[in-house]
Amino acid sequence: MNNVEKTTPFHSPRARANDYAGQVGEADGCVRMEMLEGNFLGLADVDGPCDVAILQIPYELTTSYGEGTVDGPRACIAASSQVELYDPLLPEDLPAGFRLHTAPAWDGEGDSLAEQLANVETYLSDYLDGSCFPVVLGGEHGLLPAEMRALRAHPDIEGDLSRVTLVQIDAHADLRDEMNGERASHACAARRALDEGVGGIIQIGVRAISREEALFLAEDGRVECFPARDLLSTCSGERDWNLLQARLADIDGPVWLTLDIDGLDGGLVPNTGTPVPGGLHYWQAVELIEALFANPDCRVLGADVVEIVPGKEGPLTEFTAAMLATKVIAAHLANLLEQREKQEVET
User: How much is the pTM?
Assistant: First the structure.
């Protein structure tokens, strides 16, 4: 441990860059303390197997309003260099002795929408096979079905996506059967995930929904919805929030977390493609992530943070996305630490 760490437990990211530029330290055989542009959190990358892989998918082909998600992953990576490495769930700063890998971005190859989605699936297949914990940065939400197809190779799934519960934080239900004639639209992502065989979806923060989607929700028992209006109600919001927390605590089995950042209030993510007022507060999103990972009966296999669009007036949108992705990583690593401790006690 160097002198800065001993005397300044809460130092700024900018100070971190100055203190550690060109320096390398090691923890559990992992290079940790080198501020590197292009790597998530500015952390040095690792060779060989990793515990967490940050995957950039600059996919944008079916946006229906604001554009720019193609630049979202790169902007999120850049913003992450200003995110603090401290998280109260962990006994030391990130990476907390674990191995983080920022993978090269998906190359965007494909002459058609179908080809691009197939290539997204191929890109993801090296990381969604259970060898590490994947955190996908997107890119429009239309990549969700490709994620689900790649997830079939995970040993906890064994090809059967009906075992998976999809926890979806989103302003939109994404349950349309098609939009503008396109069934692979980002507005159809959850519907297509069900078509792939996903067993159930818990939607959180929805507040922009079509009549078609409302009817689908009423008739299809695979989807549970906790609308933002109920969760934020001045009269019954606390009751509905507690019901949601109880539902997350009741999940049993594999989970994929899909976090469309427009699930947060538009004031926090003003540049996302379709910002909607009346969304979740930042700390509510953090509480949901922590509650999900705290459930001992569910296994979060991976997560995505999507619909990131860099801002021209300021970096709030991509910075918010980077902070939420960091919280997901910290919550996962806290679980890994707990598992290590249990194994040490047993041996």
Answer: 0.88
SS3 of 91, please?
A: coil
Dist. CA 68–CA 171, nearest whole Å: 18
What size, in residues, is the chain? 347
Once rounded to an integer, what is the mean pLDDT over residues 69-98? Answer: 96
Q: How far is CA 85 from CA 92, 118, 134, 302, in A?
A: 9, 35, 19, 20
CB neighbours (10 Å) of residue 159? Answer: 10
Phi (first) and psi of residue 102, to 5 degrees? -95, 105
Rounded to whole angstroms, the maximal C-alpha distance in the chain is 61
Tell me what the pLDDT averaged over the chain comes to.
88
**Domain-by-domain residue ranges, the chain?**
3-346
Q: Is the peptide bond before 95 cis (omega within 30 degrees of 0)?
A: yes
Residue type for 271, please? N
CATH 3.40.800.10 assigned to domain 3-346? The reply is: yes
Tokens of 136: 């996908």
What's the rounded mean pLDDT across residues 88-103? 97
pLDDT band at 5 (very low <50, low <70, confident <90, very high): very low
Q: Return the CA Rg of the chain.
A: 19
Cβ neighbours of residue 165 closer than 8 Å, sequence gap 6 or more: 198, 199, 200, 201, 202, 251, 253, 254, 255, 256, 298
